[in-house]
């Protein structure tokens, strides 16, 4: 199918629309629908089951070679599918880390056997993943990783600790860079592994965040045995493999993330929810919408969201053509993460004291979802590398400015 066949594209649109009607969870989108608690096993399982259905129907897995389970579609077809999914709004997929970071890493550094073993099950969501990178003393300074791996026959025995390991509560597999040569210089002393999270000695201790969720955990490796066959790339090449993972993460897995959730706003500027909130919130007898300052702020977000949407689309096309660098993706990443926080701050100003009521409190507006978003966005400028560190990357690697001294 080519971009020049609008009749076929329209038929695809109708097909996807009918498929969604048939396959969305019962009651989905209706006012009475009660979604499983965010972060719960039920929510995870729902996301997994949904992602599998989407994959089986041929509506995700684009841009990935078919020999690894990818699905071939033209850009126009992908756009139609994405559009219909976003228009309807669908369950969030379980564990986005697999498609976002593991697939790009495997495509770049994995061997044939590894790519064939792992990629199809990521696409079908049969296996979900976690990323054991950050340690108590290795966050921004990732090269300071202290986990050790000692070779024992066909296996490596791994010891150490990670922290902030998102999604590890329900993950089947993980990625982990490990110091395998304590005598080699920084950047050449690490090797990169995929490991089975059910391995004896791997322990997950959930950490509760201020949102009330335990989205991430501390994870411990106590003599965890990882087969040598699970090493991605060469021994000692782990730093470079880890950088490929981080590049993919900072770009939000732009080329591979399934179009099964609202990635972009569907209405112009995507600010309708703020308009509605401002119209429904009263202060001293007037609605917040009557205040021209708030109206201007909302309009400004509409402009920024549209700019982001076009910029993302441009990056997506560049990514498909393999012309996108991780450094370039840092620009959009900083902007959108800081924008999320600014939007949440504006909502808090609109809501006033009501923003303090959390989920479960009968006084909370929309069952505390605004409050949840306000609190969750605080982590946006930290996760996937802090915005300070990303600014350093732009300064050094794109603008050629001198390296900062610490
Ligand atoms: C919601 C969330 C989810 C996460 N999920 C995961 C996950 O799944 N897996 C995982 O491995 N990690 C995860 N992380 C961890 C995250 O990657 C780290 O928190 C982040 O890289 C910062 O590391 P750190 O916390 O050790 O802070 P530090 O590195 O100690 O930084 C402390 C402060 O110093 C600043 N700083 C440090 N170095 C520089 C520099 N060179 N230039 C300028 N400023 C600097 C930082 O910007 C920061 O403000 C997650 C974090 C959050 C918040």
Structural class: alpha+beta
- Low-pLDDT residue spans: 254-266
Query: How would you characterize the largest beta sheet?
Result: 4 strands, mixed
* Level-1 CATH class name of the largest domain: Mainly Alpha
The CATH topology label of the largest domain is Butyryl-CoA Dehydrogenase, subunit A, domain 3
Number of strands: 10
* Spatial order of strands in the largest sheet: 1-4-5-8
Number of helices: 11
Description:
- The chain has helices spanning 6-23, 41-56, 75-88, 97-109, 112-123, 238-250, 272-280, 292-320, 326-351, 369-376, 387-398, and strands at 129-131, 148-152, 155-166, 173-179, 190-196, 202-207, 216-227, 231-232, 282-283, 286-287.
- It folds into three domains: 6-103, Butyryl-Coa Dehydrogenase, subunit A, domain 1 (Orthogonal Bundle); 128-249, Butyryl-CoA Dehydrogenase, subunit A, domain 2 (Beta Barrel), CATH 2.40.110.10; 264-398, Butyryl-CoA Dehydrogenase, subunit A, domain 3 (Up-down Bundle), CATH 1.20.140.10.
- The N and C termini lie far apart (55 Å).
- With 406 residues, it is α+β, with helices and mostly antiparallel strands.
- It has a four-stranded mixed β-sheet. A four-stranded antiparallel β-sheet has the order 2-3-7-6, with no helix packed on it. Strands 9-10 form a two-stranded antiparallel sheet.
- Helix 4 (97-109) runs antiparallel to helix 5.
- The chain is built from eleven helices and ten strands.
- The chain binds flavin-adenine dinucleotide.
- The site of flavin-adenine dinucleotide has 17 residues, from strand 3 and helix 11.
